Amino acid sequence: MTIEFFARLPLHGETQYIPGDNRNRGDWNRQPHASTGAVSSSEVGDDFAYVDYLSQVARAAEINGFSGALLVNAPFGDEPWIVSAALARETKRLRFVDAFHPGHFSPWQATQMAASFQRISGGRLVWNVIQGGSDGLLRANGEPLPHDERYVRAIEFLDLVKGFWANESFHYKGRYYEANGGGLRGPLARAPIPTICSAGTSDGAKELAAKHADYYLVLAESPDHVARNIADVKARAAKYGRADHIRFGVSVDAIARETDEAAYAEAKRFFDEGVRAGTVKAAAVRSTQMSDTNRARFERYNGREVADFDDLFVEPHLWGGFGYIGIPPGFAFVGSYENVAAKIRQFADLGLSWFFINGYPHLEEIYRLGEHVLPRFRAPKLVSAIGNAGEGDGEQAVPLVSGGGLAARGNG
């Protein structure tokens, strides 16, 4: 199975330190004028704006062999489609995994926008269809439907998108949408439909993935939970004849260093800063506003007595400490380059082939992962033999570096 890696573009500020710290890059700090690094004063026409830093991150991902980059859709950050459209012209191959709520677009508008993006970018758009989250926050932003209905509507939404894409005259009547003869025509119809990703562990989320997703995305929580969710979605996909079509990906952060000890020191730094800044209490309060699934997950990994950072290891080299201090996605592979690679292989063995993996700050950690972790997963290359005088121009295979053992700190 081929493994592909995806970085992430920080659309609402960098997180080298706890969010809000003035040492972070971006306009989302408490006092932007006092910040260091990539920050603009939010004035139109600034010589250097935050999008210029995002451009650096995107190009770094491409240079270091990432297949694409995830753009998270947060209500307090920049909008993914707008940013990725700008960055598509500054990159060559990088795919953009844009998260969006179907309720924010009409199916036809989304179809036309995606087809145009595909034509402009050379087919580099991936959709991450999201529907979960806090009902209160979504209602604040104009979403009237409760959780389960949002997923029913999203299934219809994608019914129409696929119908518009495949037919010049598409007809459909559902609970939330209907179409009477619309469809892509001409050059737009020749654009490839975006790869579709979705996530979520509720019944509605799994039904959406089963019917429409090319990739179902999970968090890197306990491998047992991951395996059960994959098996459940595969069984549901079989009802639509898609059990062999749907594939799986995982979202996880990484703290990878030369040694386990150096990686643990960095994890402890984040933990200690979060405790000092009070983000632990804030994260606990926010957990009461999460969806039922996310609240249960928070309690499962973060709701017990915690004395220090190492109490938050779910198992060796899998740390739930980011969730404890309120930094999503919450889980991280922590350890030496060798042991982080071994952790990736462990999760790949569960059936995961897309790894959305990044660290903080994004720019530097993309280079770190690209130089020390990703090469361990590249196919062997044939190179000219050196120092074999008289043996002609023979070639030898360069083997992949093995992942190493799993002995490390953790709670088993």
UniProtKB/TrEMBL annotation:
Protein name: LLM class flavin-dependent oxidoreductase
Organism: Novosphingobium clariflavum
Keyword Cell division: no
Keywords: Flavoprotein, FMN, Monooxygenase, Oxidoreductase
Record has Flavoprotein as a keyword: yes
Pfam families xrefs: Bac_luciferase
Every Luciferase-like domain range: 43-352
SUPFAM superfamilies the record matches: Bacterial luciferase-like
InterPro entries: Luciferase-like_dom (IPR011251), Luciferase-like_sf (IPR036661), SsuD_RutA_monooxygenase (IPR050172)
UniProt biased composition (Polar residues): 32-41
Region (Disordered) residue spans: 17-41
